[in-house]
């Protein structure tokens, strides 16, 4: 099975807690129905969009992290495409040996940083 992350933008008028939970449960069910496993669901909240999408200037962001077979992704994206509550979505396949997204990745502890969290510049020449 492969690791995936999907970001979903929901219409802001539907940002009620019950509606958000229902959307997460629906797409989590699609993934588990195709022998997938949910690693986590993050609610990023209501954010301003960079440009209007379907006449909306804001959207409620959700990120799902999961493992699944490719046919499960096709079914989930088919359902996302026809769901009127969804403004946009994006599914990204993670590198095979990469774990699903974690908070430590955000804090600058990746391979291009040193212990102090400063970025290393390999092209920098010293005099």
Q: Care to describe what's here?
A:
Residues 103-115 have low confidence and may be disordered. With 127 residues, the protein is an alpha+beta fold. It has a four-stranded antiparallel sheet with strand order 2-3-1-4. It has helices at residues 17-33, 70-82, 103-106; strands at residues 2-10, 37-53, 56-68, 86-93. Helix content is 27%, strand content 37%.
What's the arrangement of secondary structure elements?
Elements: E1 2-10, H1 17-33, E2 37-53, E3 56-68, H2 70-82, E4 86-93, H3 103-106
Antiparallel strand pairs: 1-3, 1-4, 2-3
Global shape: globular
What's the CATH class, please? Alpha Beta
CATH superfamily: Ribosomal protein S6/Translation elongation factor EF1B
Number of domains: 1
Question: What's the order of the H and E elements?
Answer: EHEEHEH
| Model regions low in confidence, pLDDT < 50 over at least 5 residues | 103-115
Number of strands: 4
Beta strand %:
35-45%
Discrete helix count: 3
CATH architecture name: 2-Layer Sandwich
Largest beta sheet: what is the strand line-up?
A: 2-3-1-4
Rg computed from alpha carbons, rounded to a whole number of angstroms:
18 Å
Mean residue pLDDT: 82
Largest sheet: 4 strands, antiparallel
Question: How much helix, percentage-wise, in residues?
Answer: 25-40%
Structural class: alpha+beta
The rounded distance between the terminal residues' Cα atoms is 49 Å
**CATH fold annotation:** Alpha-Beta Plaits
């Amino acid at each position: 099975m492969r690791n995936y992350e999907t970001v979903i933008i929901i219409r802001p008028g539907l940002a009620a807690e019950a509606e958000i939970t229902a959307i997460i449960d629906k797409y989590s069910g699609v993934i588990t129905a195709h022998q997938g496993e949910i690693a986590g669901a993050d609610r990023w909240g209501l954010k301003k969009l960079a440009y209007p999408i379907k006449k909306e200037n804001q959207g409620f962001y959700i990120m799902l992290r999961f493992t699944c077979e490719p046919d499960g992704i096709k079914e989930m994206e088919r359902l996302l495409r026809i769901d009127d509550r969804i403004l946009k979505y994006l599914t990204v396949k993670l590198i095979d040996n990469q774990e699903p997204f974690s908070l430590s990745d955000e804090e600058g502890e990746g391979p291009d940083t040193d212990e102090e969290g400063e970025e290393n510049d390999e092209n920098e020449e010293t005099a």
